[in-house]
Design goal:
CATH topology of the largest domain: Rossmann fold
Radius of gyration: 19 Å
Oligomer: single chain
Shape: globular
CATH superfamily of the largest domain: Alpha/Beta hydrolase fold, catalytic domain
Number of domains: 2
Largest sheet: 10 strands, mixed
Length: about 325
Amino acid sequence: MLNPSAVESSTKSVQTPVRRRRPSAEPAYLSRSPTIDMTLEVHGIHPVRARISGDEADPPALVLGGISADRRIRRWWPEITGAEGALSADRFRLLSIDWPEPGENGIATTDDLADLLAAVLDALNVARVEVFVGASFGAMVGLSFAARHSDRIGRLVAISGAHRSTPAATAGRLIQRRIIESLARLGNPAQGVALARSLALTSYRPASLFDQRFFDADPVETLSRIEQYFDHNGTRFSDRFDAGRYLALSSALDRHCVDPTLVRCRAELIGVTSDRLVPVSQLRELAGAIGIRARLHLIDSPFGHDAFLKSTDLLNPLLKSLLNAPGGG
């Protein structure tokens, strides 16, 4: 049941650094602030690739995305982290990482990743982040971080991520893992990843969007369009994402479980009305369990779970308003 104190709003549309690396070439218009790539040897055993953008005098912010995201946030989230975005490096000192390799030194759950992030902050001499903005898998890690390291976070913004996975979401990912494992036994793990990714795509966006994009009066043409879409996206994904990594991160999603009462920082929860993976009902439950520190904001986007990537015209002003509010950075 939703705690009356949890406010709901709606937006409608439609151990030390050991090596520094040259920043990747990116469009200059995105930000005027410096960007530094580095590899951190956390506690001497966990190599973590990290990126810092922005001035040291600006408030630090952790920014993490879904399982396919990496430290190059300007590349996969340019409208949000660019010069005109809510998370501009001209305003915040942005910290992002690559998700570590699966099973690397015991990193297997969102709790493990939350603890790893705390160790990364130690290595960078950052006592506390002003804001942690996580989307999808990053939101789940953010919730775990807030529950386990409450003294190191000012505010959490969790986009399309909850305290645990729903049974329906877990069921879909279980099938994806079975596909990968079956094809791996046949000697073609890459094909397994491509097919699993294709199945995942059907859960990221609502059926109505598939109807709009692929319907044709001739069902053979509909089938051809969908086949081309899955072949292209599945192959592109499997070219850069191996089977072990997919299996590990997928399993971490399904084992994720956070006690909301341990989230003691201000929590801005952002949901999408058409999201089937993280339904609004689940976010209402989460907001109620966190209590007075939580506010739920809804985006009315047709893109489902992909809205944080595809509906940035709705998300950006919402994030600006939240981060401009008192205590928001």
